[in-house]
Amino acid sequence: MDTNKEFAYKGFVLNGFLALLFILALFAGMVYCFVLSDQNAYYAIPGVILLALFGLSMNGFVKQEPNEAKVLVFFGKYCGTFCDTGFYWLNPLMSKKAVSLRARNLNPDPIKVNDKAGNPVMIGMVLVWKLEDTYKALFEIDSQSLASVSPGSRSGSARLLSLAFENFVRVQSDAALRQIAGCYAYDNPDTPDALTLRSNAEQINEELVRTLNDRLSMAGMHVTEARINYLAYAPEIAAVMLRRQQADAIIAAREKIVDGAVSMVKMALDKLRDEGVVDLNEERKAAMVSNLLVVLCGDEPAQPVVNSGSLY
Q1: Rounded CA gap, 184 and 293, in Å?
Q2: CATH hierarchy code of domain 104-233
């Protein structure tokens, strides 16, 4: 079922410059009537009527830039969204709520959450969002009460309305980020093919975008991009986790060194045997393997001992 209730405004629209000429004519007629009222008081009646029309008509002007829109409401009834750019004159009795359709950034401060393993981590993100459905943004969520200002302050109302939208996105993005972070471990997954926050950034970002759009669809907002831009262990466990990561790195390096040393020892023994350099029994092979492994796997440079006597 289509739930999109937004539609384009189809009512009367007049070019703003033509309307300005007409309003200036009203102003000239009003002045003329008030001048004649000094001679005949009856001229004051049309003068007052023209003054009222002049003041009411001035409320009908609309100036719009690209990617801006006006949501038109006539005594509580939604009349459509006006998106044409330029200078126009609309029904002055309609209230015109200005909204921006431009893309906006949101970069909230990192928050502390528990990952899937229960470890506290600091995580932050940056997202790009924009307004797509003006009806939902104004009438499906309580944004207007947060943006209420004194009548006549249109720029202030538009600014506060924009801040209300940003606050809604901020709250929902915080909830979505907590939800995503709690579903994955920071690193060291339980299974080899499991996703982690640190190693699978692209997949996590894609799921974050989907989660945000599910949450923001009720408000007519769409997230075009969301990325985790900060990820670290919380300060209280950062030192311990750093030592664990260092230990993992040392173990991985040692495994690489041992694999290489065993391969080199095997190559040396095979080459000595194939070329008939020396014939070693099992005991001497074991001693040679031990010496080579010490030399190849040691952290410090080896100090050789020269045997000047017989090998046996």
Answers
A1: 41
A2: 3.30.479.30
How do residues 143-196 score in pLDDT, each as one tens digit? 776 655 444 445 567 788 888 899 999 999 999 999 999 999 888 766 777 888
**How far apart (Å, rounded) are the C-alpha atoms in residues 233 and 200?**
17
Tokens of 296: 């190849």
Alpha-carbon separation of residue 97 from 26, 53, 152, 153, 256 (angstroms): 27, 22, 12, 11, 66
Higher local confidence (pLDDT), 111 or 152: 111
Kindly list the distances between the CA atom of residue 179 and the CA atoms of 2, 114, 118, 166, 200, in Å, as whole numbers in the listed order. 28, 10, 13, 20, 16
Does an H or E element contain 88, and which?
strand 86-89
Q: CATH 3.30.479.30: which residues of the chain?
A: 104-233
pTM of the model: 0.71
Q: How far is CA 107 from the centre of its chain?
A: 7
Q: Tell me the C-alpha distance between 108 and 112, whole Å.
A: 12
The pLDDT tens digits for 218-260 are 999 999 999 999 998 888 776 776 777 777 777 777 778 778 8
**Per the structure block, which two tokens stand in for 79?**
């009349």
Which residues make beta-bridge pairs with 131?
Answer: 221
